[in-house]
Specification:
- The structure is a single chain.
- The chain is an alpha/beta fold.
- It has one domain: Rossmann fold (3-Layer(aba) Sandwich), CATH 3.40.50.
- The protein is about 50% helix and about 10% strand.
- It is built from 7 helices and 4 strands; from the N terminus they run αααβαβαβαβα.
- Strands 1-2-3-4 form a 4-stranded parallel sheet, with helices on both faces.
- Strand 3, helix 6 and strand 4 form a beta-alpha-beta unit.
- Helix 1 packs across helix 6.
- It is globular.
- The termini are close together.
Length: about 130
């Protein structure tokens, strides 16, 4: 997530922020207050396959609070369930595979399923650090 954050910030010049609510050990209510306050244009949520039932409820809650926010689902679940996610949930895009380039494409206006688009070795070496 951090790698994608720095890459997207550099490539788009957007105000890109990284937040790991699990690492912060914050409650759902604290996280939702953050979402309410920030009113993000895009919100990337990397759900785990094992916690999908919970994570989809988080996505629905965010959409209910901030319907203008475009929710993006990257990561392993997008590689296997992107059609289902887009059909059943208020998700703007699913980014399959590593999502540095896919994130930039979403911020540039793409939506739907963004297929695998891996960084080259040269691109990985050039990505800035946080």
């Amino acid at each position: 997530m951090g790698y994608a954050t720095t890459y997207a910030a550099r490539e788009t010049r957007a105000d890109v922020r990284f937040r790991d609510s699990i690492a912060l050990r914050e409650s759902y209510e604290k996280y939702y207050r953050y979402v309410d306050h920030e009113q993000c244009d895009y919100l990337f949520i990397e759900p785990a396959i094992s916690s999908w039932e919970n994570d989809r409820q988080v996505i629905d809650e965010i959409h209910g609070r901030c319907p203008q926010t475009r929710i993006v689902v990257p990561g392993p679940i997008a590689a296997t369930r992107s059609e289902e996610i887009l059909a059943r949930h208020p998700v703007h895009a699913c980014v399959r595979g590593e999502y540095e380039k896919g994130s930039v494409r979403v911020l540039g206006g793409e939506s739907g399923i963004l297929d695998f688009d891996l960084l080259t070795t040269e691109e990985m070496d050039a990505v800035p650090v946080l």
